[in-house]
């Protein structure tokens, strides 16, 4: 159990530099009133603290840090390198990115520095070092926040040269590159490293998100993720010269596509992330993102940002209903968060985020619904203290999430444009979520032996070693579930020959001969042995059992009567193969067979429409009981007679759980 903090940080992004001094004092007063104990500062202040190439001016930041220190407010100190100052881009235009269409950008916006610009690297590293030298010994700095929401891409000449260097170290020879990218196709054979160009709209790109050569495009993604990670490491190492121990993070974005977060997390002391669901995002999806963020380091994480009320950048920025922010915050803690932080503490007056919710609204007082809700939660968290910090979530189920697969599956041209990686993973996650069966989101190289059941839907790319580790897991008695579009390609997106699902053929006990693609209006159906039929769509594998038993078969079209879902025995374990996308109830039926057989149970051992999660400290279990269903719900029997530590009241059999109600029940281990 790792504890990065000795109290639950409660606060968020704070930009006093956008306001006159009188307002700062009001802020301090309002923060106390709301039990806010932490602020994230200096996220976008580069232009302020370095007004020109040769001058740094920390006077305002000194004042802000002094003020917060006096008020005993913790500081999450950002390095400001997420938005470049105008002078930097004007003097060194190569610090700005070149986009997918090949256009070099000018000064503007943020999150747009070329990660391979030596000038950007020099000044970003220098700024981080200066901040650490100046403030690194302040005990109120509880965390370093490098940059902000790394992401995006660059296609400039510096990136092109750096890509060639990256490729040389990976492949050594140009022949190896030709083989990996299958360049004989369309006669793209390369004879010299300098012939390699970045795969954007001017070269191999097809439309905005497809490619003629997935091999090069996937390598470019790996390279871009690594390039930005190098930026992170550069700042981190600069900070570490002066500050040896304060945890260092950068804020991630859940299932954000373009950074391999498992690789990133290895370089971070603690994962933090920004949670911005839309009005219609399923709660199961939010929970999956939290579990993924916890899974990155298999450790509790920080909620770096959420809005207390509404966003501005979605098409429909609905308000969080009364109680919703509280429920959502407890959901976050339930899945492993040790902090609750908002974007932002005071609503800005201009530019594109003036409609973004904040703890302090434009009215400027604490007399708002949102402020009252923030204060109430602040009181509760203060009361809770540090008992939950570092407490662990324990799961028998692991779901594999893999960025190489994410990129490769979605670059692929065919068989069905509607096939989306995260959507597939979520369908499997949702089954366990709906039953309150705890899930860990795990990397492809996780220690599988900890789990009873592993789900690896659309495991399209099977790299070296994966077959062996999955076989070992099942042989020893584990249950594996996989699906259509699995085992198809190697790490370079070249097909494993000899019939699908390639290296998983023996394990699954099936040979997939053809894959039918169904347009949204087209359906097939699958039939179980009791005659019960359900719809299916998207893709239909036409397969031949090679040792596997049929669980359900197609009930129409020319492949009527052939298997749609199968079960294979392998060693002491079992492998389920789901060859199509069945409607949720049918997938649930298949997953129920698998989960029962594997002995995976809900955290409270009974069905409930409430979300129930458990975290384990060294001495206690904490059950989080949250109503995200939209309707009143009965309390599960297992919880009657227990005390809700948030309100102090006893939960009785008659307790009706109102929408957005949240309880925490504590039990000695
Ligand atoms: C992101 C950024 C913040 C802010 C919020 C608005 O998460 O990190 O600076 O722009 O979005 O939702
Ligand atoms: Zn670049």
Describe what this molecule looks like in 3D.
The chain is α/β, with parallel strands linked by helices and 669 residues long. The protein folds into 4 domains: 9-153 and 227-384, TIM Barrel; 157-218, no CATH class; 397-598, Class I glutamine amidotransferase (GATase) domain (Rossmann fold, 3-Layer(aba) Sandwich); 611-668, Immunoglobulin-like. Helix content is 30%, strand content 20%. The protein has 17 helices and 27 strands. The strands form 5 sheets. Strands 12, 13, 14, 15, 16, 17, 18, 19, 20, 21 and 22 form an 11-stranded mixed beta sheet that branches. Strand 8 (251-252), helix 9 and strand 9 (272-274) form a beta-alpha-beta unit. Helix 5 (118-135) packs parallel to helix 8 (214-242), helix 8 (214-242) packs antiparallel against helix 13 (403-411) and helix 10 crosses helix 14. The longest helix has 29 residues, at 214-242. The two termini are 15 Å apart. The relative contact order is 0.09. The model has no long low-confidence stretch (mean pLDDT 97). Bound molecules: alpha-D-galactopyranose and zinc ion. Alpha-D-galactopyranose binds at residues 148-149, 274, 276, 305, 311, 343, 353, 356.
């Amino acid at each position: 159990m790792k504890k990065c903090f000795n109290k639950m940080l409660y606060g968020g992004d704070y930009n006093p530099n956008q306001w006159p001094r009188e307002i700062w004092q009001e802020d301090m007063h309002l923060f106390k009133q709301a039990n806010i104990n932490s602020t994230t500062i200096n996220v976008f202040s580069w232009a302020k603290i370095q007004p020109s190439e040769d001058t740094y001016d920390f006077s305002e930041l000194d004042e802000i840090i002094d003020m917060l220190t006096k008020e005993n407010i913790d500081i999450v100190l950002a390095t400001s390198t997420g938005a470049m100052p105008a002078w930097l881009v004007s003097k060194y235009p190569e610090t700005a990115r070149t986009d997918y269409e090949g256009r070099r950008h000018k000064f503007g916006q943020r999150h747009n520095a070329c990660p391979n610009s030596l000038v950007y690297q020099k000044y970003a590293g220098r700024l981080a070092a200066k901040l650490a030298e100046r403030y690194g010994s302040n005990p109120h700095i509880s965390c370093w926040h490098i940059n902000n929401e790394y992401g995006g891409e660059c296609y400039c000449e510096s990136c092109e040269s750096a890509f060639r260097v990256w490729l040389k170290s990976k492949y050594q020879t140009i022949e190896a590159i030709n083989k990996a990218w299958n360049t004989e196709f369309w006669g793209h054979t390369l004879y010299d490293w300098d012939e390699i160009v970045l795969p954007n709209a001017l070269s191999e790109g097809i439309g905005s998100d497809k490619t003629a050569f997935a091999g090069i495009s996937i390598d470019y993604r790996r390279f871009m993720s690594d390039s930005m990670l190098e930026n992170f490491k550069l700042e981190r190492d600069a900070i570490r010269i002066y500050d040896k121990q304060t945890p260092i993070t950068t804020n991630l974005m859940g299932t954000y596509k373009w950074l391999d977060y498992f690789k990133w997390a290895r370089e971070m002391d603690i994962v933090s992330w920004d949670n911005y669901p839309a009005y219609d995002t399923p709660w199961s999806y939010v929970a999956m993102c939290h579990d993924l963020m916890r899974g990155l380091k298999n450790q509790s994480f920080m909620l770096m940002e959420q809005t207390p009320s509404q966003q501005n950048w979605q098409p429909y920025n609905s308000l969080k209903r009364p109680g919703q922010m509280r429920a959502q915050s407890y959901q976050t803690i339930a899945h492993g968060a040790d902090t609750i932080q908002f974007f932002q503490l005071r609503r800005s007056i201009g530019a594109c985020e003036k409609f973004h919710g904040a703890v302090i609204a434009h009215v400027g007082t604490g007399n708002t619904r949102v402020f009252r809700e923030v204060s109430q939660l602040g009181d509760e968290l203060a009361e809770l203290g540090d008992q939950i910090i570092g407490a662990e979530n324990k799961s028998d189920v692991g779901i594999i999430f893999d960025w190489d697969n994410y990129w490769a599956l979605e670059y692929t041209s065919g068989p069905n444009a509607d096939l989306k990686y995260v959507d597939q993973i979520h369908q499997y996650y949702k089954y366990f979520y709906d039953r309150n069966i705890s899930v860990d989101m795990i990397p492809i190289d996780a220690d599988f032996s900890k789990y009873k059941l592993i789900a690896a839907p659309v495991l399209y790319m099977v790299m070296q070693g994966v077959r062996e580790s999955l076989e070992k897991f099942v042989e020893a008695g584990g249950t594996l579930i996989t699906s259509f579009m699995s085992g198809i390609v190697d790490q370079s997106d070249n097909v494993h020959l000899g019939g699908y699902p390639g290296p998983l053929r023996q394990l699954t006990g099936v040979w997939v001969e053809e894959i039918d693609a169904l347009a949204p209006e087209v359906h097939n159906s699958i039939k179980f042995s009791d005659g019960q039929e359900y719809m299916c769509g998207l893709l239909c594998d036409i397969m031949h059992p090679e040792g596997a038993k049929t669980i359900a078969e197609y009930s129409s079209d020319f492949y009527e009567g052939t298997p749609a879902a199968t079960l294979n025995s392998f060693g002491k374990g079992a492998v389920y193969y789901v060859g199509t996308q069945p409607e949720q109830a049918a997938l649930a039926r298949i997953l129920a067979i698998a989960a029962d057989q594997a002995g995976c149970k809900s955290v409270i051992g009974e069905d409930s429409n409430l979300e129930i999660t458990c975290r384990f400290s060294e001495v206690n279990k904490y059950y989080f009981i949250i109503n995200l269903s939209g309707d009143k719900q009965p309390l599960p029997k297992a919880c009657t007679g227990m005390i809700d530590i948030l309100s102090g009241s006893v939960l009785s059999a008659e307790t009706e759980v109102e929408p957005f109600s949240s309880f925490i029940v504590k039990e000695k281990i």
